[in-house]
Prior knowledge:
The complex is a heterodimer. By secondary structure, chain A is an alpha/beta fold. Chain A has helices spanning 2-13, 109-114, 169-181, 188-193, 206-219, 235-241, 257-268, 278-281, 285-295, 300-307, 309-314, and strands at residues 20-29, 35-44, 47-52, 60-63, 67-70, 72-77, 117-122, 130-138, 143-154, 199-203, 223-227, 243-247, 272-274, 332-335, 346-351, 354-358. In chain A, strands 1, 2, 3, 4, 5, 14, 15 and 16 form an 8-stranded mixed β-sheet that branches. Chain A has an 8-stranded mixed β-sheet with strand order 6-7-8-9-10-11-12-13. In chain A, strand 12, helix 7 (257-268) and strand 13 form a beta-alpha-beta unit. In chain A, helix 5 packs parallel to helix 6 and helix 9 packs antiparallel against helix 10 (300-307). Chain A is globular, with a radius of gyration of 20 Å. Chain B is built from 11 helices and 16 strands. In chain B, strands 3-2-1-4-14-15-16 form a 7-stranded mixed β-sheet. In chain B, strands 7-9-10-11-12-13 form a 6-stranded mixed β-sheet, sandwiched between helices. Chain B has a 3-stranded mixed β-sheet with strand order 5-6-8. In chain B, helix 4 (186-202) crosses helix 5 (208-218). Chains A and B meet through helix 3 and helix 5 of A and loops of B.
Amino acid sequence: MLSLCILSAASLWAAPAEDTFALRATQVHIGDGTVLLDAFVVVEGDKIKSVGQSAPGDVRIVDVDGQIAPGFIALGETTGASGENRESARKSTPLADLSHAFDPHHPGWKPLVAQGVTTVLMTADSSRIAGGLATLVSPARGEVVQRGVALTLGLSSRSLSLTEEPTSYAGLYDHVTSAFEGAADGSPLARARAGELPVMIEALTRMEVLRAAGFAKEMGLSGAIVGAPKADETLDVLRDAGLGVVFEPLRPGGSDDVVDSAMALAEAGVPFAFASDAASAGPAAIRMTLGACTRGGLDAKTALKAVTGSAAEIAGVGDTHGTIAGGKAADLVVWSGDPADLTSRVRAVYAAGELVHEAEERGAGR
Amino acid sequence: MMLNLLALTAAAFAAPEGETSWTVHADRLYTSTGVVHENALVVVEDGKITAISPGVEATRDALTAPVITAGMVDASARLNVGTRSVEQSSEVTPTIDARYGVDLFDPRWKRLAASGITTAFITPLNENCIGGLGAAFKTAGPASIDGRMLESAPMLCGAIGSQPSRRNSPAFGQPRNFFNRRPTTRMGVEWEWRRSFFEAAQAEEPDVQQKILLDALAGTTGVFVQAYATQDIRTAVFLEEEMEREGFGQMRIVIDAGAEAWREPDMLVRTDTAVILPPLPSQGRTTDQALMPLDCAKKLSDAGITVALSAHPGSSASPRLDVQAGYAMRGGLTREQALLAVTFTPAQILGIDERVGSVEVGKDADLVLWNGEPFEATTRPIGVLVGGRLELDPR
Lengths: 366, 395
């Protein structure tokens, strides 16, 4: 317990650990659906140097008791940002910067890290038509990792209200179409049209998905639909528009609808991830989602990929996050077993190469 | 003939489940073109009618029914997504497009199709003076707007009467900071209509909204006005005549839900205005307390007015369109007249009669198979084809 306090306190001001070390595990989940057996993950500073069957002779080797996986990426997280991610002065605020809604010391972060989350994408509230620029943060280190990684668009009924324009879907699309068509060069909307900035579009019915995907295609947007119920029925338009899907978090006892959709998407090669929404679903939302996925029949590796590699790709940070590969952020979690197995426990969490969480040994025989 | 039939049979056998090619046989085929065939075989290929052969027996593989008619067209189906189909931030919103006001996954589409309605015209919810552009959709088919919408001349839709003026507030919900300026009286509604057209006609640089109004003044865009009561039908007709007098153009108005059109048919004859009747009210009066008698369609028809029936939900005894046609027959229309009023006439009013509304070679394979003479109390659709897709299976 004492060590935990020191760790979290240290993380507030300490620079990343500068030494080089290697973690050795019987299984290393890369995060792209593959697993390496008896492998080393070499960490240099805040980055992964290499992953493979060997490590340089001169580095310190840490034998971990368990399996290594990339840290989970929590999409659409609002912890500590209640109300602060919703700028209601205007219907569209594409320049609103979500890094200013980030509370680095919020008590909600620590439980999230303890569940294996190393990276969080903070997004604007979806009741805004263009809510702002999503920010990637490290909850363990209390740091903004990257600002302006994606643009949040709300093209669902949540963007329609009785108190301001628009009140209708047609009005919503009038609004968003003219906003995109009139966007100044270099503005977020123009960059999204140029394919430089991914979008995360909320759409909460099949019809909303149909429209949003059509709009994204027309405007040349890339990114993902957030929500997308029964996405297997809108698969063709999603694939046609080149969009991924971010599902709501699942509960193990919930319906298998979303899992069926996810399986159809996996088969069709449409990338998908899951939101975490810890504020309402609890800090273990991503773990529970993995459990629900595997219970529903989704392959455990595919499920893990959804919350690591695919989540990073969808958030537009696939180059630096999401998988265990040389050059990427050293965000690693040591699990007592398979990360998609709900009986597994988090043993240790590394964020940017730094040990930020270590579980206390519990009970006899553990 | 024999060769033809063989070819048909082959086509039907080749068609797997979910396909759009069939042969269909009826003891009696009402074509909605003034012709009735006995023992007719209709060939459907790739969703279109490719041959009609009267006086032949059914092929072994054909779908059969005692009677077949064209799929019904409901010119006022009102199957929009409700409050979210109308833009309340203004009372005149010509650019609001009904294609954004529908949900193709709404289960009501299936019910419409199974009831024999194969084409439905949808408007934004009638809570604005000028609500926006309507659109005609097939009631079944691919889950895409383009795949379901019928190309037609645009139709600008709105309402005259108490509905757009009921409340000085948003039409639904409690206002908090909404900028309210809705009319509160029929006088205000009439003013909004006239003001909009006058301003459009006199604008030096018309904006995108006014351009649509100018198209309506030019007659290239129709104007679809919900007007139940006589005073509201008058307002619509007088508006058209005033615009013509002013030299602004010749509008092409269609009266939707014209329950009291029978009271003063002369002005409709004078302006050659078509009327779509609402479903017969269960208590004699419709919305806006308009009196609609059973022989409403008969009176309009006798006066030479183009009349179509509709079955949008409301206070009607039955929202089914075939039942409405039955009521119209009870009021004096012949079966042929009633059939036209739910097939070809609404298609013609909407400008989609090139594709739908009658059983003719080259048209969409929208067919209703009935278990007896249509519109009788004991008759119901036993099979429905929409664009060749079997939405209700008679087998």
